[in-house]
């Protein structure tokens, strides 16, 4: 009778999970570096593995396909770009904090977020990227729509405001500012611009009481 091997201990499972997470971070970082360096069309699973110091087999095992890897990269690079938002209730102030924090974060933008903006721009002409970034942009717009709806309910946003229109405008504005910063950082004064843009939306959306 063949003995059944013991189940992995809790600590062993945790160590395995930590290794998987460490591998994923290394691979996504390598992918982002390649996107920034050479563009998405030059990125392959083999090149990612080589840059990260892993075999292509490990990259394939981790993601399966290049499309799945790009999806993971899009999610990883967008997450946490503006810290502290999760602690704020939906509403106008949260949206203004998002705008201010997004523009302010450009000064310290790292390779992961650079890759996201470059991939977003390329998605307009890359069929493998378009569905990924449509989903990411819709999540971004939904977040802003929630803030506008909450602002209307609490009386800080004018009731005639179209949440859909504002969401499209804000996402386009922030992404566009980000791309301009990547192209010519000296042309984008983030310190001044964050105040100007936040102030514009406060004046445009706010309820002006006598």
Automatic annotation (TrEMBL):
<dbReference type="Pfam" id="PF13977">
    <property type="entry name" value="TetR_C_6"/>
</dbReference>
<protein>
    <submittedName>
        <fullName>TetR family transcriptional regulator</fullName>
    </submittedName>
</protein>
<dbReference type="InterPro" id="IPR036271">
    <property type="entry name" value="Tet_transcr_reg_TetR-rel_C_sf"/>
</dbReference>
<keyword id="KW-0805">Transcription regulation</keyword>
<keyword id="KW-0804">Transcription</keyword>
<dbReference type="InterPro" id="IPR001647">
    <property type="entry name" value="HTH_TetR"/>
</dbReference>
<dbReference type="Pfam" id="PF00440">
    <property type="entry name" value="TetR_N"/>
</dbReference>
<dbReference type="GO" id="GO:0003700">
    <property type="term" value="F:DNA-binding transcription factor activity"/>
</dbReference>
<feature type="domain" description="HTH tetR-type">
    <location>
        <begin position="21"/>
        <end position="81"/>
    </location>
</feature>
<dbReference type="InterPro" id="IPR050109">
    <property type="entry name" value="HTH-type_TetR-like_transc_reg"/>
</dbReference>
<keyword id="KW-0238">DNA-binding</keyword>
<feature type="DNA-binding region" description="H-T-H motif">
    <location>
        <begin position="44"/>
        <end position="63"/>
    </location>
</feature>
<feature type="region of interest" description="Disordered">
    <location>
        <begin position="1"/>
        <end position="22"/>
    </location>
</feature>
<dbReference type="InterPro" id="IPR009057">
    <property type="entry name" value="Homeodomain-like_sf"/>
</dbReference>
<dbReference type="GO" id="GO:0000976">
    <property type="term" value="F:transcription cis-regulatory region binding"/>
</dbReference>
<keyword id="KW-0678">Repressor</keyword>
<dbReference type="InterPro" id="IPR039538">
    <property type="entry name" value="BetI_C"/>
</dbReference>
